[in-house]
């Protein structure tokens, strides 16, 4: 069961000047309150169109979707891309203990309900997939279809990939957590200094990075993890999900490689879909092949 309130110490808010003059990011900010915190999101395209929900992961923010948003809007879709609590322009509780898997699901679910979103197409990557798949299971009536790229929903199976174990220890123990360089290391494309700086922008000092440092330890590979029961319950519902479900994993991600097979096998809505491998992309396929991924989503919506 999800907690009703977050046991927070205090929450930080990144100064707005951090977000000035970001390259290729002309989008207006939007804000809603969730659980006493301010959540930021992009909201582009016609308000009466069916929404496409773009969910980012670790340690990025909605800037990751700047290449996808215009392509989706050009096809006539309303496109929403929230910053998870702890990331981007959203508020950032200051202690690692302020974050849990259940709270992340609760915060986005509250936002969906506040926005009264229905007939949603989900695109989720990394933690955007973990949270997004939980939402499909827990409020599936709001969703029309889903696309998952480089993600999944662990439920205590153990034995995470070696690359993830290294990443988890790094996030816990490193004295310096260089977000821009971390995102760049997960891309095939070489990111410019200006783009790396845009990924650093939400975090003017280390005290803003509690959410980013918390995420790796919240992935429930251990069967004793507190989120395992909720994730296993979610999987029971996902095994009954018959709405269209597509995977679009990249060919260059050592962390999630092969994870699409479980999704394709166990989710009924994945049967008969044109699952795609995104060539020449790393973990952050939105950065490497954003326009291509957006066109894939457009075709999926048009065909289902």
CATH class: Alpha Beta
The major pleated sheet works out as: 8 strands, mixed
- Specify the overall morphology: globular
Total beta strands: 10
Helical amount among residues, as a percent range?
Answer: 25-40%
> In the CATH hierarchy, what is the superfamily?
Alpha/Beta hydrolase fold, catalytic domain
How does this model look, in words?
The structure is a single chain. Helix content is 35%, strand content 16%. It has 304 residues and is an alpha/beta fold. Strands 2-3-5-4-7-8-9-10 form an eight-stranded mixed beta sheet, with helices on both faces. α2 crosses α3 and α4 runs antiparallel to α7. The chain starts with 10 loop residues before the first strand and ends with a helix.
Structure described in brief:
With 304 residues, this protein is of the alpha/beta class. Helices cover 35% and strands 16% of the residues.
Kindly list the characteristics that best describe this protein.
Rossmann fold, 304 residues, 10 helices, eight-stranded mixed sheet, alpha/beta, two-stranded antiparallel ribbon
């Amino acid at each position: 069961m999800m907690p009703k309130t977050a046991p927070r110490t205090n929450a930080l808010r990144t100064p707005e000047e951090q977000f000035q003059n970001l390259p290729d990011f002309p989008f207006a900010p939007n804000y809603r309150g969730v659980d006493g915190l301010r959540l930021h999101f992009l909201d582009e395209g016609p308000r009466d169109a069916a929404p496409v929900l773009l969910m980012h992961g670790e340690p990025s923010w909605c800037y990751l979707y700047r290449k996808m948003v215009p392509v989706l809007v050009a096809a006539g879709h309303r496109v929403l891309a929230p910053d998870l609590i702890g990331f981007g322009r959203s508020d950032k509780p200051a202690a690692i203990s302020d974050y849990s898997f259940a709270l992340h699901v609760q915060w986005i679910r509250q936002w969906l309900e506040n926005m009264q979103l229905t007939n949603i197409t989900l695109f989720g990557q990394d933690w955007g997939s973990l949270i997004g798949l939980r939402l499909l299971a827990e409020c599936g009536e709001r969703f029309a279809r889903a696309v998952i790229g480089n993600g999944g929903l662990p439920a205590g199976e153990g034995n995470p990939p070696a690359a993830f174990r290294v990443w988890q220890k790094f996030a816990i123990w490193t004295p310096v957590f260089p977000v821009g360089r971390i995102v760049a290391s997960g891309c095939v494309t070489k990111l410019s200094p200006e783009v790396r700086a845009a990924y650093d922008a939400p975090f003017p000092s280390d005290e803003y990075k509690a959410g980013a440092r918390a995420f790796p330890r919240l992935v429930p590979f251990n069967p004793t993890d507190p989120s395992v029961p909720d994730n296993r319950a979610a999987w029971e519902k996902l095994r009954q999900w018959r709405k269209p479900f597509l995977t679009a994993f990249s060919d260059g991600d050592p962390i999630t490689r092969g994870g699409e097979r479980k999704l394709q096998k166990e989710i009924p809505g994945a049967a008969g879909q044109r699952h795609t491998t995104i060539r020449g992309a790393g973990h952050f396929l939105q950065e490497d092949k954003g326009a291509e991924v957006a066109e894939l989503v457009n075709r999926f919506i048009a065909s289902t």
